[in-house]
Design a protein that fits this description.
Layout (H helix, E strand, L loop, with lengths): L1 H25 L1 H18 L3 H11 L14 E5 L7 H13 L3 E6 L4 H7 L4 E4 L6 H8 L5 E4 L7 H16 L4 E3 L2 H8 L10 E3 L3 H11 L9 H11 L4 E4 L4 E4 L4 E4 L11 H19 L9 H24 L5 H5 L2 H9 L2
Parallel strand pairs: 1-2, 1-4, 2-3, 4-5, 5-6, 6-7
Antiparallel strand pairs: 7-8, 8-9
Helix pairs in contact: 3-12, 4-11, 6-7, 8-9, 11-12, 12-14
């Protein structure tokens, strides 16, 4: 027994000596690789759910009578065309339900009357398919805290060109941008639109993730190592935050990977991603405003994304408990307030 223990000690000492020699020989490059490896391992194995909940609670602005309209978030949704009017509505109303003060929707002209009919709460701008769309939206950017780009956008060439210009204008003003749905289709065609912009958050589902991977890295993504894949894609995009939606949502900023496996339900109706994108828009604003000191040194956008994923799953769970198989995203939106209170205000 003593012999085995002594042998293990010798082996460990030899390993340390070898590692030290390698670091001495190869210097900073190897040290950097090792630091990233151990940092990633810690993120994967040491996530404390309650700590993450507390970090999200830290970024949520406290209600007070001293605030004025707009301070807790003015969010812009860029999307909505003739075929798709529900998605921008779900994103915009979810931002409001999560706590934003104002939601603007910048959509195609034919979509505007329909979106307006869904709710009087939304400010709707029928400009997205106009020749001056980029300038029209640019005029509003100083009044907005974050943009959500893509819900209901479609793939019309004119709309995509205009949205590309809007993304460039948003980067120039340093505005946080959440990119979802056909906004991700656009980014797959033009990765430079978000390359290196660390106030961007991409929210791909499985198919959208594969498309981005092929465009940015090439070849098929490794489905057997989702954590490694989301980390690598984020790094390849210049440490842009990526939220890979799935059975377990994986979130990475190229340095760390967080997993959100909060219980949802087996119901997968259309529109849930729009709820996630809209709530993430306002949480991204709150997190960046709060800063790393409120997120214990963690990336504010990682915390915001984890919060939005958890909120979406909680809404899904609560709606499914009431409606079962017939659950729709409208039912989930109705649960946002109660779900938010349960998760982040108790």
């Amino acid at each position: 027994m003593a012999g085995r223990a002594a042998g293990a000690a010798v082996a460990a000492a030899a390993g340390v000596a070898l590692l030290s020699a390698l670091i001495a020989s190869y210097g900073p490059p190897l040290r950097s690789v090792l630091q990233r490896t151990f940092s990633l391992y810690k993120a994967q194995s040491g996530e404390d759910m309650e700590d993450l909940f507390q970090l999200v609670r830290n970024i949520v602005p406290a209600p007070t009578l001293k605030k004025h309209k707009g301070q807790d978030g003015r969010i812009g949704i860029v999307g909505g065309c003739q075929e798709y009017t529900g998605a921008p509505y779900f994103a915009a109303i979810s931002a409001l339900k999560a706590g934003a003060d104002l939601s603007h929707v910048f959509c195609a002209r034919e979509a505007a009357p329909v979106i307006k009919s869904y709710s009087p709460e939304l400010i709707v701008h029928p400009v997205l398919d106009g020749a001056g769309a980029v300038e029209e939206v640019r005029r509003w950017l100083p009044r907005l805290h974050a943009l959500v780009v893509g819900p209901g956008l479609g793939r019309d060439d004119l709309l995509l060109r205009n949205v590309g210009g809007i993304l460039e204008a948003s980067k120039a003003r340093d505005i946080p941008v959440v990119v979802d749905a056909d906004g991700l289709w656009l980014v797959a065609q033009r990765p430079a639109l978000v390359q290196g912009y660390q106030k961007a958050v991409l929210t791909p589902n499985r198919m959208e993730f594969s498309r981005l991977w092929e465009a940015v890295i090439g070849g098929p993504a490794d489905d057997t190592d989702r954590r490694g894949s989301v980390l690598r894609l984020s790094q390849a995009l210049g440490n842009v935050t990526v939220v890979q939606k799935g059975e377990q949502d994986l979130i990475s900023n190229g340095q760390q990977v967080l997993a959100c496996g909060h219980a949802g339900s087996s119901r997968r109706c259309g529109g849930q991603g729009d709820l996630l994108a809209g709530s993430l828009g306002v949480m991204a604003h709150w997190a960046l405003l709060a800063g790393p000191e409120k997120t214990n040194g963690s990336s504010p956008l990682l915390v915001a994304a984890w919060g939005a994923c958890t909120l979406t799953r909680q809404c899904n769970q609560q709606a499914f408990q009431k409606h079962g198989r017939s659950t729709t995203t409208t039912d989930m939106v109705a649960e946002v307030g109660a779900a938010f209170r349960q998760l982040f205000e108790t």
